[in-house]
């Protein structure tokens, strides 16, 4: 939520939607609060995080139960992390130290994050707190400086500029993707009810901070420029606080990247273990004492390979990341769909103790599906996105069939 | 345990080494221009500056030469035909 990718999306969306931005972000937040409710319900129904397959399998089959939770998250963890680390490398090279190669900094950051994970779970949790606090405090500080300062740009805050970019309208749907990783990391540490409230507080904090920053950006940078640029956050920081603003934004980008990659590594590693415990992946993986650490090493190695292969310079990187995000959203919508089905089945079987009502999940499912369709249609390269989506799904279904078959074979023996 | 820990740190060290090797790319025999030379001809109408960075390399960078056009290295066939033969094309990618 504080990654450089989110800051770019926030800037572009604010520039494209103008004064409508806050309303659109609040709608996206509302949808994610429904998502958070769905996940808290899953935990209360004794579906441990990572074992949502139990809910999916009866209706959609074993392969879908493996592929659906895995694909989007893995794509974002590998390709998204590569992109964010490279972006941090550029910021370090261009803002702080020109002579230090950007790629070397990206690799160095990856090595530091890996070392933190190898040092243990506590070290990863403390680092997560430090990285996210730096990013959030930095963003709040810059926003406050902006609110107290004077802008020489004509404010866009109250301008309903007619050419609202349709692509900007749906961008807020990306802002909160990944909130569910928190549930995996805190599994067993926080009770189910506490988990829901902590997730809600996290979502609200992110919305307030991002909303504040977006409105300050709109007050200082022309909307058209914000909508088109690839670095809206740096432009706005420079306008708000000059050279100091640029330095502070540099720190925010690096800390935000570290927080996002750290969270992805921790969350995905915990999810892989939970899926192995639930026999969605070879159960031997779940039994290993160091499975979480090995997963992080595997993820870091994949990210290192992607960066060494020059994936950051590929025009396909953003398409692949967006494919991952689309699949992540699809997973959210499928969770709502499954909860709806489970509630209807309970109703039909005349059980008096219906745990949840299907209406909220029906709203969540329909809105999410419409959002996904809109995001795909308004994406600048829809045809390439769809092509990549089909290729990724084909590969993952094949992998899912192999993994499910392997697990069955091991279980028989 | 000691061996496992050591292997983990060797892995990190290897990644750092790969990073430095990767960033020192060897250039072939391509005519080069210093930034001072480029600065001197930036206003020349016969000079076209093309930024060949792609993906995040271009998107993440704050520094872009004023007036430079963004061109994809994969579309060489297209943009090489776009400019008149008497134009001097200056390409940069870092």
Please describe what this structure looks like.
The complex is a heterodimer of chains A (413) and B (94). With 413 residues, chain A is mostly helical. Chain A has one domain: Amino acid/polyamine transporter I, CATH 1.20.1740. Helices cover 78% and strands 0% of the residues of chain A. The mean pLDDT of chain A is 88. By secondary structure, chain B is of the alpha/beta class. In chain B, 44% of the residues lie in helices and 13% in strands. In chain B, β1, α3 (55-59) and β2 form a beta-alpha-beta unit. Chain B is extended and about 55 Å long. The chains are: A mainly alpha (413), B alpha/beta (94). At the A-B interface, α4, α5 and α13 of A face α1 and α3 of B.
What does the secondary structure layout of this molecule look like, with pairings?
The complex is a heterodimer of chains A (413) and B (94).
Chain A: H1 4-17, H2 21-44, H3 53-60, H4 62-96, H5 102-118, H6 121-148, H7 166-170, H8 181-185, H9 192-220, H10 223-228, H11 232-277, H12 283-287, H13 291-308, H14 317-348, H15 358-378, H16 382-412
Chain B: H1 2-23, H2 35-41, E1 47-51, H3 55-59, E2 69-70, H4 76-82, E3 88-92
Parallel strand pairs in B: 1-2, 1-3
Summarize this, please?
The complex is a heterodimer of chains A (413) and B (94). With 413 residues, chain A is an all-alpha fold.
């Amino acid at each position: 939520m504080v990654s450089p990718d989110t800051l770019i999306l926030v800037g572009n969306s604010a520039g494209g939607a103008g004064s409508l931005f806050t309303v659109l972000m609040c709608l996206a937040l509302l949808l994610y609060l429904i998502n958070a409710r769905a996940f808290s319900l899953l935990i209360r129904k004794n579906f441990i995080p990572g074992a949502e397959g139990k809910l999916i399998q009866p209706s959609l089959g074993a392969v879908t139960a493996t592929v659906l939770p895995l694909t989007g998250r893995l794509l974002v963890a590998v390709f998204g992390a590569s992109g964010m680390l490279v972006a941090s490398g550029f910021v370090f090279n261009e803002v702080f130290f020109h002579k230090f190669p950007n790629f070397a900094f990206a690799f160095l950051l990856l090595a530091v994050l890996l070392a933190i994970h190898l040092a243990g779970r506590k070290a990863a949790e403390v680092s997560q707190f430090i990285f996210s606090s730096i990013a959030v405090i930095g963003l709040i500080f810059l926003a406050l400086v902006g609110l107290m300062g004077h802008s020489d740009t004509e404010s866009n805050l109250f301008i309903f500029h007619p050419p609202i970019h349709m692509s900007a309208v749906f961008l807020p749907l990306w802002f909160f993707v990944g909130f569910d990783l928190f549930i995996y990391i805190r599994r067993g540490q926080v009770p189910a009810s506490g988990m829901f409230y902590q997730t809600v507080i996290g979502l609200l904090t992110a919305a307030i901070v991002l909303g504040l920053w977006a409105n300050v950006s709109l007050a200082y940078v022309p909307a058209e420029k914000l909508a088109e640029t690839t670095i809206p956050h740096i432009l706005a920081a420079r306008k708000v606080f000059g050279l100091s603003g640029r330095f502070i934004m540099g720190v925010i980008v690096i800390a935000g990247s570290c927080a996002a990659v750290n969270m992805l590594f921790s969350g995905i590693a915990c999810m892989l273990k939970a899926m192995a415990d639930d026999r969605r992946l070879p159960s031997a993986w779940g039994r290993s004492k160091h499975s979480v650490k090995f997963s992080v090493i595997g993820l870091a190695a994949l990210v290192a390979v992607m960066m060494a292969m020059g994936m950051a310079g590929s025009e396909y990187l953003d398409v692949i990341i967006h494919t991952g995000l689309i699949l992540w959203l699809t997973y959210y919508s499928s969770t709502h769909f499954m909860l709806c089905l489970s509630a209807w089945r309970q109703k039909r079987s005349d059980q008096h103790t219906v745990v949840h009502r299907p209406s909220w999940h029906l709203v969540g499912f329909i809105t999410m599906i419409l959002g996904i369709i809109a995001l795909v249609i308004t994406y600048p390269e829809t045809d390439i996105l769809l092509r990549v989506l089909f290729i990724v799904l084909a590969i993952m279904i094949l992998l899912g069939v192999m993994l499910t078959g392997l697990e069955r074979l091991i279980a028989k023996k | 345990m000691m061996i496992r820990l050591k292997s983990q740190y060797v892995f990190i060290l290897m990644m750092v080494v790969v990073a430095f090797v990767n960033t020192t790319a060897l250039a072939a025999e391509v005519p080069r221009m210093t930034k001072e030379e480029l600065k001197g001809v930036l206003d020349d109408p016969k000079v076209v500056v093309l930024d060949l960075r792609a993906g995040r390399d271009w998107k993440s960078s704050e520094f872009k030469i004023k007036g430079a056009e963004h061109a994809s290295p994969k579309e060489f066939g297209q943009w090489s035909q776009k400019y008149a033969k008497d134009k001097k094309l200056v390409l940069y990618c870092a």
